[in-house]
Design brief:
The protein is of the alpha/beta class. It is built from eleven helices and twelve strands.
Length: about 290
């Protein structure tokens, strides 16, 4: 069941009449449900203005999924591989020179890359899959607006990219309540432990003040409802067939939290919004709603 005000804010089942005319598309966020991950992404990106709105010819793109766990896709701990394939294909169709995929994993990185299905999906689509398991890949950056986190070490691929596409999966998280787009950025830094030791929600909000992705694509096809972030079995998972896309990371999280079947508040969403890092009031957004 899909719940929350995101669905009740008028015209959810509306079919977009002008999705092929990019000059007429100016949605802040698109919510789509009912199809396979790749097909939902195609329809939603049409409504957002197309991948060429974000990726220009000759650019270097980094696609950052969640592939932090050594589990199969059906357990919904990692981003859906079919979605990653279609994102990469669209980046190349838009003229990207190079597309990289990586994550700083929690489980052993080779097993995560393999068993998540993402490494094969990315390579089959033509992307370069890079490691994130060694500190030498990370470079120090300052976070001047951070309240707790004043600096971090960020993966060099993010620092060198022209376009950064964040592709989290929506799921339960024992410490953060939910893990969505902002939380997924923990996979681009070296010392995740600092975040847990110094106030997880504040650190999540702090890092957003430094680095916002150009595009956020939230995978909510299969959603882990309990025992996150790794999960225990497929019994933890509900098939929702949903996707949220926005270039505003706070809005993406706020909308995703609305569709998650829970009344729990996610503190870092409000923290980031109050500090002006994005919009969490969905009534102030132009939202496209599509049902396949």
């Amino acid at each position: 069941m899909f719940t929350g005000s995101l669905l009740s804010m008028g015209g959810y089942g509306k079919i977009f009449a002008n999705t092929t005319n990019n000059s007429q598309v100016n949605y802040d966020l698109v919510a789509i449900r009912g199809g396979e991950p790749d097909k939902m992404f195609e329809r939603a990106m049409e409504a957002m203005g197309g991948m060429r709105k974000y990726v220009k010819p000759g650019q270097k793109v980094v696609v950052k999924p969640n592939m932090g766990w050594d589990v199969v896709p059906e357990k919904a701990a990692n981003t859906n591989p079919k979605l990653i394939t279609r994102i990469i294909e669209q980046c190349f169709e838009a003229g990207a020179k190079k597309v990289y995929v990586f994550d700083h994993t929690c489980d052993e990185w080779r097993k995560c890359y393999d068993n998540s299905g993402i490494e094969k999906a990315a390579k089959d689509a033509g992307a370069t899959v890079a490691p994130g398991h060694t500190e030498s890949y990370y470079q120090k950056v300052d976070i001047p607006r951070g309240e707790v986190m004043k600096e971090a070490k960020e993966h060099e691929l993010i620092l060198e990219s022209d376009v950064f596409i964040n592709v989290p999966i929506l799921k339960d998280h024992s410490s953060a309540r939910m893990t969505i787009a902002m939380k997924n950025l923990m996979g681009v830094v070296w010392d995740r432990g600092f975040w847990h030791r110094n106030g997880l929600h504040q650190c999540i909000a702090d890092f957003v003040s430094y680095r916002k992705p150009d595009l956020n694509i939230v995978d909510a096809y299969r959603v882990m409802r309990r025992n996150g972030p790794r999960g225990v079995s497929i019994n933890d998972v509900t098939t929702m067939k949903y996707q949220i896309i926005s270039d505003d990371i706070v809005a993406a999280d706020a909308a995703s939290a609305k569709i998650y079947p829970s009344d729990e508040k996610v503190p870092h969403i409000d923290m980031a919004a109050k500090r002006g890092y994005g919009q969490n009031d969905l009534s102030k957004l132009k939202i496209g709603r599509i049902k396949i």
